[in-house]
Write a structure and sequence with these properties.
The chain is built from 3 helices and 7 strands, in the order αββββαβββα. With 117 residues, the chain is of the alpha+beta class. The chain has a single domain, classed as Gamma-glutamyl cyclotransferase-like (Hypothetical upf0131 protein ytfp, Roll). It starts with a helix and ends with a helix.
Length: 117
Amino acid sequence: MALNHQLLERGGHLIKHARTAARYRLFALPGEPARPGLVRDVMGGGSIEIEVWALRSVDLGSFVEAIPAPLGLGKIELEGGETVTGFVCESHATGSAREITALGGWRAYLAESAARR
C-alpha cells in the first residue's frame, strides 16, 4: 500500500490478513494519496479485509506523529472477537467520501479503480 513504507521504515512487519467484525463501513477518502477510512457502525456495515502489522512500542510515537487527520489509531474488532489496534477514521470525514463497504476491502477498491481506467 502507498504508506506501508512508514511501517517498514520503523521495523514493522505484516503478521496476517484478517477481516473485521461485520460492523464497519469503509470509505475512499478524497485527496492524495488515496487512502481508506474505516468507521465503526454498530447499526450496519460489513466485514472488511484488513492487514495486521506488528510495530515495536519504541517506534510507535514517531509512527503516530506521521498519521494525517482524519485518520487515527483505535481498537478494531476482528471476525473471531479478537481486538487489534488499527487505523480508524473520524466520521465527519466521510461526508464527501465514496462508501466502498460493499467491495469488502481497500485492495478490492484499488482493483476496481484500476479496471475503470
